[in-house]
Structure formats: C-alpha cells, structure tokens
Amino acid sequence: MAEVKRSDPAFVRYALTGLTYGIVGTLVAIPLVAVFHYAFSRGLGAFWSNLVHNADTRHAIFLTMVVAPVAVALNVVFGIAAAWAIARFRFPGRGLLITLIDIPFSVSPVVAGLLFVLIFGVNAPLGEWLKDHGYKVIFAPPGLVLATAFVTFPFVARELIPVMEAVGPEEELAARSLGASGWQLFWRVTLPNIKWGLLYGVILCNARAMGEFGAVYVVSGRIGGQTDTIPIQVQKLFDTPGENGIPAAFALASVLTLLALVTLVAKVLIEPRLREKE
Amino acid sequence: MSGVSKRALPGFRIGLGYTVFYLSVLVLIPLAACMLKASSLTWSEFVAAVWSERAVAAYKLTFGVAFLAALANVFLGLIVAWTLVRYDFPGKRLIDALVDVPLALPTAVAGLVYASLYAENGWLGQFLVPLGIEAAYTRLGIVLVLVFTGFPFVVRTVQPVLADLDVEIEEAAAVLGANRWQTFRRVLLPTLIPPALTGFALAFARGLGEYGSVIFISSNMPFQTEIAAVLIVSRLEEYAYAEAAAIACVLLAISFLLLAAINRLERWSQRHG
Predict the structure, then answer these.
(1) What ipTM score was computed for the predicted complex, to two decimals?
(2) pLDDT score of A277
(3) How far, in Å, CA of B245 to CA of B243, rounded?
(4) Which residues of B touch A111 (CB under 8 A)?
(5) Residues 174-193 of chain A whose Cβ lies under 8 A from any Cβ of chain B
(6) Do B79 and A30 touch (CB under 8 A)?
(7) Considering only CB atoms, which chain B residues are within 8 Å of A99?
(8) pLDDT in tens, B4-15
(9) Which residues in chain B touch residue A176, judged by CB atoms under 8 angstroms apart?
(10) CB contact A110 to B (< 8 Å)
(11) pTM
C-alpha cells in the first residue's frame, strides 16, 4: 500500500531513468571513453613513445610526482593539527577557523597563484630578498608546492574533522588517565581511530594536487623541461602545431584520467568503512 | 559533542598554533599582500583596471556562463538525484560512482576532451556542428565544461535530503487526496529547495573561478570569450601586477560573499533536513 502511493507512474520512471543515463552518459561516460580512445588511437606503441620519448613530458611526470606528494604531506600535518584543535576543543574564533579552511573552494585557482606571485615574484620585496640569497620560489618548484598546497589544503582537514568528532574523546581521555604521553596517545589511540578518514582525505587531496592547473599555471612560468607539471604539459602538447600534438596530449591526459578512476574506486571502497565508525 | 577541557587532553596549543600559522602563511598573508598591491594604485587607476570595457565584458561573461551552468545543473542534478534515490535500474551503482568523476578528473583533461569531442570532426561535434550547434571555441563550450565541473554539487546536496525524507509525509499527502504531481510540487519540492540552492551556489562559485577546462574549449578572445580568470593571466603576462591584483580583489570579494551565502544555505538546509 505504502509503496504504491510513493511510486511514480511507470512512464515517469522510465523517462527519468532514461534521462539519467543520457545525462551521466553525455557529461561523464563518453568523455572518459574518449580520453582512452584518442590516447590509444595510433596503437600501444605510439601511446608509449608519446609518454617516454619526449624529454619535457618525462620531466613533467617527474615534477608532478615530486610536487604533489610534498604538498599532500604538508596538508596532512595541517589537517591533523586543525582537526585535533577543532574537533576536540572549544575556543573563541573556532567558527571563523572552520570558514577559513573552506576558502580555497571558492577562490579561483588563478587568483591563488597570483597571490604567491605578488609575494615572491619579481618586484616583490620578499621575492627580491630571497633571490639575492639564492632562493627562487616563483617559476620554480617551491612556488609550485605553495600554490598546490593552497588549492588542496581543505581536503584532509575537512575529512578528518567529522571523523574525529564522531569517534569522540572518550578513548583518548581513558588513555590519558592511564598515563599515556601525548605521542603515545596520538600513535596508539587517535591515529588508529581516524586512519580511514585520513586515507580518504589523502587520496582526494592527492588527486586534486596532481591535476591542479590554474594555480600552477600562474606560478610556474611554464618553462619546458623545468617547471611544467603534467597538466601544463598536456596543454602545451594540445597547442603544439602538427598532427602529433593532440594524440600526445591525450596519452599524457590518460595517465591523469587513470589516476582519477583509481581515486574513485578507492573512494567507493573506503566510504563504507567511514560509515562503520559513525 | 562538546569540547573537552584544555587540560584533559594535550596538544591544544600546538594544534591550534600550527593551524593558525599554516593558514597565515598560505592564506592570510597572501590575501593581505594582494590588497596591499591593489592599493598601490590610485583610486582612478584602480577603477580603470577593474572597470575597463574589457574587464566589464569579462565579468559579464564569467557571471553569465557560471550562472547558466549552475542553473542547468539544478535541473540535471534534481533528475539524477531523484532517479538514484527512488528507482532501481541496471548500472545504478556505476552511475552513482560516475557522478563523482568531475571532482576527481583534472580540469585540464576535461577541457582537452570536451574541446575534442565537440570540434567539427569530434564524436559529438560531427552531429552537432551541421545543426548549427558549435561548442568548440564558443561561449556555449564554456557553459558545457562548467556544467561538467559543477555537475556533482547539486546531485550530492539533494541526494541525502531526498533519501532521509519521511515516507509518512508523502503517504499523508496521498491519503488526503493529492495526486503524484501535487505531492511533488507542494510537499517534496519545498524540502528540496534548500539543498538545491546550496548545490547551485557551490556550482556557481566553482564556475566563477574555473580556468583549466575553459582555456581549452574557449578561444579566449577579449570581449567575446575571455573570462575574468583569463584576463588576470593576460594582465600578469604583461607584468601589470597591480592591475591583475585589482581584478583579483574584485573576484575575491565576490568569492567571500558566496562563501558566506553557502554557509548560511548549509545551515538553513540542515534545519529543514
């Protein structure tokens, strides 16, 4: 009886289901298939040589593999510190702090990159001073790390805060009363309780870090073989005249797409464990 | 849960201290630097930078395409969320997982593949271009990639609200003689508006700042297909740092207004959820 009243007429059901296939198919599924189709359109050999026989592409892969993990590591330390303070304690300005953590979600990546150019770039006092002492931030890997860290820092913290709140402080208080030191408390009680949330945050953060474009575009200066990351190199290959540019761009893009798909599979696998905790 | 006493657990000072330090280095000091740089301009120079004809055209385009894309996402998102929550169909779990792809797929990849799909010889362009629907290098293309990047937001805000909805409310409406459409319009739709608006605002905010996917599919021509982020980059490439900072300040002000609006909306939809 209840089911009958809640259910929609059959034609509505079929129409909406059909529309959903159409929407997700056109927006997401066809583009995903197309990436791999274009990447492999000239065969496996051409795909492989597109990836390994271009020195700039090789360097871009190497640079992304360095910059993204460093940014993720910085954000993990920040995420744990922020979640600990926000989930376990009440203090004035706590609400403001939570809002600040959301800033990168609404600031344009290009503006984020610009902010660092204004501090560390040419003509900026700090940038000039660092340059005189032999440090280069903008148009160099440190700038890439800063810009990437800015865009991705909410991911770990935003995952950890609700997980830590759901777990509650009881076990930690018990451990403390039994004489555990701060360090023991973290490694033996807190970390095991938040490990799935942490892993989830790291995976999301890493996917975003490896694929970041706008912020990196602005701070990198796009020096081929030096400051180009994978996404920037994809864009350069796309703009390369001649008929090999686009297949090469897709070959490199398919690597990022694979990373995105692995991220989503990991997400599907981890999510049930997160709910278990709650 | 309420907080514990600062003496019961260790690490409050170091946790909060590091959080504030990190946010200062990464966010607060850079924001201050941007405002400082913009304030190095005189008032009339500032106005000339942020209100030039080219800049106004870029804001209009940016707002227009982000608004249209977010609006389209409200409709698409409601359909997809409704279908995923209410019906069983083959491939449901796959479709549900695919909704998250735009959050994980780098925007440069999205721009690259959309530009190729909708080009004259692309998979979709070969059918659409003869019909006069040209997406590659046009404003329509920008809207399309923004629909893609903002697609998960409405689905993911509406889905949990729809799943948690009380069965009894709908049954009561039916018992009282409402037909299915009336039940939807008068009973279900009002509860879906707050989460749909939150999703709209999130997609809109994302669309305003989007860069990576847009530069692939747009021709990036001033006055025609140049969005605000592209204008900032071209000012930077001219080494007009103060002008770039001034335009960035305008975008930042809008971002913060949107952030405040999203916060309000989220609280509102939690109260109604």
Answers:
(1) 0.90
(2) 54
(3) 5
(4) 34, 209, 229, 232, 248, 251-252, 255
(5) 176, 182, 185-186
(6) no
(7) 259, 263
(8) 777 788 889 999
(9) 8-10
(10) yes
(11) 0.92
Residue B86 has pLDDT above 60, yes or no: yes
Nearest residue on chain A to B4, alpha-carbon basis: A89
Q: Determine contact: A31 vs chain B, CB below 8 A.
A: yes
Task: Determine the pLDDT at residue A2.
Answer: 41
E strands present in chain B? none
Whether pLDDT at A215 is above 70 = yes
pLDDT digits (tens, 9 = 90+) for A132-149: 888 888 889 999 999 999
Please say if the pLDDT value at position A4 is more than 60. no
Segments making up each domain of chain A, as ranges: 1-39, 55-277
Question: Going by CATH, does the domain composed of B52-272 fall within 3.90.180.10?
Answer: no
The CATH superfamily label for domain A55-277 reads MetI-like (1.10.3720.10)
Which one has a higher pLDDT value, B259 or A77? A77
C-beta atoms of B27 and A100 within 8 A: yes
| Three-state helix/strand/coil letters over chain A | CHHHHHCCCHHHHHHHHHHHHHHHHHHHHHHHHHHHHHHCCCHHHHHHHHHHCCHHHHHHHHHHHHHHHHHHHHHHHHHHHHHHHHHHCCCCCHHHHHHHHCHHHHCCHHHHHHHHHHHHCCCCHHHHHHHHCCCCCCCCHHHHHHHHHHHHCHHHHHHHHHHHHHHCCHHHHHHHHCCCCHHHHHHHHHHHHHHHHHHHHHHHHHHHHHHCCHHHHHHHCCCCCCCCCHHHHHHHHHHCCCCCHHHHHHHHHHHHHHHHHHHHHHHHHHHHHHHHHC
Residues 6+ apart with CB under 8 A from B62: B208, B227, B228, B229
Digit-coded pLDDT (tens) for A246-259: 999 999 999 999 99
User: Chain A contacts of B38, Cβ < 8 Å?
Assistant: none
List chain B domain ranges: 1-38, 52-272
| CA-based radius of gyration for chain B | 23
- Judge: A111–B248 Cβ closer than 8 Å, yes or no: yes
pLDDT > 60? residue B71: yes
Question: CA B258, CA B246: separation in Å to the nearest integer?
Answer: 19
Residue A221: predicted pLDDT: 86
Contacts of A129 (CB under 8 A, 6+ apart): none
**C-beta atoms surrounding B43 within 10 Å:** 8
